[in-house]
Design brief:
Layout (H helix, E strand, L loop, with lengths): L9 H12 L3 H14 L4 E7 L5 E6 L6 H6 L27 H7 L2 E7 L6 E7 L2 E8 L4 E7 L6 H6 L3 H18 L4 E6 L2 E6 L4 H9 L7 E7 L4 E7 L11 E5 L2 E3 L2 H10 L12 E6 L5 E2 L10 E2 L2 H20 L52 H9 L32 H5 L4 E3 L3 E6 L2 E6 H19 L4 E11 L2 H9 L1 H7 L2 E6 L2 E8 L7 H14 L8 H13 L9 H12 L14 E5 H7 L2
Parallel strand pairs: 1-7, 11-13
Antiparallel strand pairs: 1-2, 2-6, 3-4, 3-6, 4-5, 7-8, 9-10, 10-13, 11-12, 14-15, 16-17, 17-18, 18-22, 19-21, 20-21
Helix pairs in contact: 1-4, 2-6, 6-7, 8-9, 12-14, 12-16, 12-17, 15-16
The protein binds adenosine-5'-diphosphate and magnesium ion.
Length: 614
């Protein structure tokens, strides 16, 4: 038999290789962006047309290529990044296989413009299906622009396999995110069909995340940081309540390279154990740094998988570090109710023989009250002084006036774990007060805390409602006369959809039909007269909900109801109510932000105050 084996022509070999490296326009985006990073660019622009099917173009201000290198860069196994096999174990660049440009040029119309810093003139080269069409000198700025047009023009089967434009665009944006997150100091811009998609200035890691995922992300981030001999971890995890049903923002970077690792993902997930429901996934942006010798990146052609020498230690460290960060962030600011009691004691007492302290304190004392009870007050202010002080707060409502409508609002009381006011309040004559029936002020060890009453109550109710909806154990108040409410048919359908969850919060619907709902029981936390508003608001919120916003329906239900039910601004609270609210707030999982991500309280310490008097 005659010899039948022959070497494949280059362009065929390249096409086959391309099948591995280039699956879709997003693969081209990844390779070109990584080349720009490797070329030390500080500013990179990505332009795409028709989800990359017509054009993917990357412009950088990096080192550029000489005339010869420009030509060579499209040869297979042509790379400036490694010289020997040893270099494979000491990689500091994204690329090293020298395949990307050769592969891309085999299956598209490619145009390259490039110039190095010290050459006067640059190069303009065009290649189609691995064939060089032209190479001419050109006047171009320092750096490189590569345009990849008509991807898969010569492999119709591959082209037909591409997904719809929105899907392919999504893939491109994913790749763009990965590179942009790994290199926050590099400025990135992305345009699609002529309009701006991203414009990311050079910044730090936190700002980059916020610039990409939106300003609300900032308050969701919990910093993570740890350094050991074999591993350095920096980055952020999203607070547990921002976990998503769908895999959302999950990013591992090892030595600035995005990687996928189910194993490390497991390490992070297990650190969240007990803080999230089972079907919810944590979000994270974690940057790991290891000695390049201790990893092997080479096991996957697109280089998104790597192998660690010491996987087990890395798993354990990652898990412990994330756990630690989550634990730290959970600590609420410590209120100062352990104030040194000697502070309230007259000076001459200091000289007396120490006896068991027996300081009497008026539990009812409040400097803003008209007439503190006489007799048993042990407080460093004389009454006249306190009156003068009071005049600073004209307009502050007299607390002794009876609180009217609040009597109606039921506070849950057994829920509170570890009351912050127990004992300590009685002993120190602790005070809280309200400003404009809107803010509650409470002293801290070295300053004060100002709490927004409405937002605080929303947080409390939200956590309570969410628990009820998921654990299904809320109590109902039976109505003597069932409520009949009227809704349009479409609105009624919406209520019908969330009926089950509403029932978990304590609603009892005896009938839903035509355009009427009959309600025979309501949650204990609300007033009968508020039910119509609550349901209308809920229907409105559900209609307005951004589809695919990633939040579960339960979550949005709890948010909407909490907003309707919370104590409003303008309602005066008596001392007990204020303290109860504070106690409940700090029994919450996350007291510092409202369900809709607004700040619930702020603190001011003495140094902040000092600044005002400078
Ligand atoms: P690799 O990145 O694996 O080396 P590529 O095919 O992606 O292989 O690129 C081949 C070579 O072309 C690179 O090693 C580099 O020298 C050069 N190159 C590619 N893109 C750029 C760029 N944007 N700026 C400067 N040089 C580049
Ligand atoms: Mg490359």
């Amino acid at each position: 038999m005659a010899d039948i084996i022959q070497l494949l022509p280059d362009h065929v070999a390249n096409q086959i290789a391309a099948g591995e490296v280039v699956q879709r326009p997003a693969s081209v985006v990844k390779e070109l962006l990584e080349n720009a990073i490797d070329a030390k660019a500080t500013s990179i622009t990505l332009v795409i047309k028709d989800a990359g099917k017509t054009l993917v173009q990357v412009t950088d201000n990096g080192i550029g290529m000489s005339v010869t290198d420009a030509r060579l860069s499209f040869e297979r196994h042509a790379t400036s990044k490694i010289k020997s096999a040893e270099d494979l174990f000491n990689l500091h660049t994204k690329g090293f296989r020298g395949e990307a440009l050769a592969s891309i040029a085999a299956i598209a119309h490619v145009e390259l413009k490039t110039k190095t810093e010290d050459s006067e003139i640059g190069t303009h080269l065009t290649i189609e299906g691995s064939k060089v069409i032209s190479q001419d000198p050109a006047v171009v700025p320092k750096g490189t622009t590569i345009s990849v047009k008509n991807l898969f023009y010569n492999i119709p089967a591959r082209r037909n396999f591409l997904k719809s434009n929105p899907v392919e665009t999504r893939h491109i944006i994913d790749e763009f995110h990965r590179v942009a997150l790994a290199h926050p100091t590099v400025a990135f811009q992305m345009l699609h069909n002529g309009s701006d998609v991203f414009n990311l200035p050079s910044s730090n890691s936190r700002q980059r995340i916020v610039n990409i995922f939106g300003s609300k992300t900032n308050e969701k981030l919990v910093p993570v940081s740890e350094e050991t001999e074999i591993l350095k971890i920096e980055g952020f995890v999203l607070k547990p309540e921002f976990g998503k049903k769908s895999r959302g923002e999950q990013f591992f970077f090892v030595n600035d390279r995005f990687i996928k690792s189910p194993y490390l993902h497991h390490a992070v997930s297990s650190a969240f154990e007990g803080l999230m429901k089972n079907d919810v996934h944590p979000g994270y942006f974690l940057f790991l740094e290891v000695d390049p010798h201790s990893i092997d990146i080479n096991i996957h052609p697109t280089k998104t998988e790597i192998k660690f020498d010491d996987e087990h230690s890395i798993y354990a460290m990652l898990r412990a570090t994330v756990k630690h960060s989550l634990g730290q962030f959970n600590i609420a600011p410590v209120l100062d109710f352990e104030r040194d009691k000697g502070f309230d004691t007259p000076y001459d007492y200091n000289k007396k023989q120490p006896t068991a302290p027996s300081i009497e304190v008026d539990r009812e004392f409040n400097p803003f009250k008209e007439k503190p009870k006489q007799g048993n007050i042990n407080f460093p202010f004389k009454r006249e002084q306190s009156a003068a002080w009071e005049s600073l707060y004209v307009g502050l409502k007299d607390e002794t006036a009876t609180v009217s409508n609040l009597e109606d609002i039921e506070f849950e009381s057994e829920e509170v774990t570890g009351s912050l006011f127990e004992n300590s309040e009685a002993e120190s004559g602790q005070i809280t007060f309200q400003i404009q029936n809107k803010y509650i002020v409470s002293p801290l060890k070295n300053g004060m805390m100002v709490i927004h009453q409405n937002l605080a109550h929303q947080r409390i109710l939200y956590e309570e409602l969410l628990k009820n909806i998921t654990v299904k154990e809320a109590v109902s108040q039976q109505l003597l006369f069932p409520l009949q409410l009227h809704f349009s048919r479409p609105d009624l359908e919406i209520i019908e959809k969330v009926r089950e969850q509403l029932e978990h919060t304590g609603f009892i619907f005896s009938e839903i039909k035509d355009e009427t709902i009959e309600i025979s029981g309501i949650p204990v936390l609300i007033l009968e007269s508020h039910v119509v508003n609550l349901l209308s608001q809920l229907v409105y919120d559900i209609k307005e909900e951004v589809p695919d916003s990633g939040f579960s329906q339960n979550d949005m239900l709890a948010k909407s109801m909490a907003a309707s039910m919370a104590i409003k601004t303008g309602i005066s609270l008596n001392r007990e109510e204020r303290e109860h609210l504070i106690n409940q707030l700090f029994a919450c999982k996350e007291p510092s932000v409202s369900p809709r991500n607004k700040l619930v309280f702020t603190t001011m310490d003495v140094s902040d105050l000092d600044k005002k008097f400078m």
